[in-house]
Amino acid sequence: MTEKFDVICSGAALVDMVAKVERHPLDDDEVFVSDLTLLSGGAAANTAYACGKLGLVSAFLGKLGENDVFGSKIIEDFNEVNVSTALLKYSKQYGTGSAYVALNNEGDRRIYAHSGAANYLSKEDVIEQEILATNVIFLSSLKNLEPFIEAANIGRKNNITVILNPGMLIIDQGLGNLKDLLGKIDIFILSQREFSTLLNIQEKLKEKTIVENAKTLLELGIKVLIVTRGERGAFLLTDQASELIPSAKVSQVIDTTGAGDAFSAGFIYGFVKNLCYAFEDLKQNVKIGNFVAGKCIQKLGARNGIPTSEEVKQML
Prior knowledge:
8-stranded mixed sheet
């Protein structure tokens, strides 16, 4: 019997090499690395891990190198929080991807990502019978759109909620090239930079600007738009209402890596509890997302600060 999942997350699973630096280099410059840490990463993989730690029945669909060291670490870390790896695919030609992250004293980061095998996930790897048994399909940060379009088609056909948290690898492809995918998703979560880039907004982003430009996306059939705004919180918008949901209070920011992935996991945690699009329920889900993201950025790496389900319940 096929296992029933709360969420299947699809996208890249990489290994992050995180370098701590006092400052980011200028042109033709060199900086000293005081500490170098190896962590599992990749946006969709981070969200899958966070969902698992929050107590959801989570699975990851992506591609790794076959029998390589980085891939083994990723699987080992998934197993720690009971994320199913049954849907993983493997490449004999390409190794597991990696990302090089420079992190300064203020928690600001620079990322250079080599997708490796992850970007060779194909639409043939997305098998309908394997992903039917889920409440949510979550897609994030993969340059190759074909498997995402296939997954979104399956979701739309089978009345499964599809959430997209794109990342700049997708956004940089332009609105015209993304319409086929965007027309098949239900919930769109993106940063303010991604929103401005996608819709070619030159002015400083204000809530009024978001509302005015969001019509372009809602007309594609997207039901819920969430624009994350860093320390200000997240702006929630549907065709019925809109509201800025303030961020959670944070004592100290250590590392902003994975904040968006953590937000997505928190939102999914709330959403799968009732699968409801009522605005007040969506607001509560955004609050949970803000809380999980706030916890995330108080620890080094995208995963170390993720709270448990008990911590979220206490917050609620």
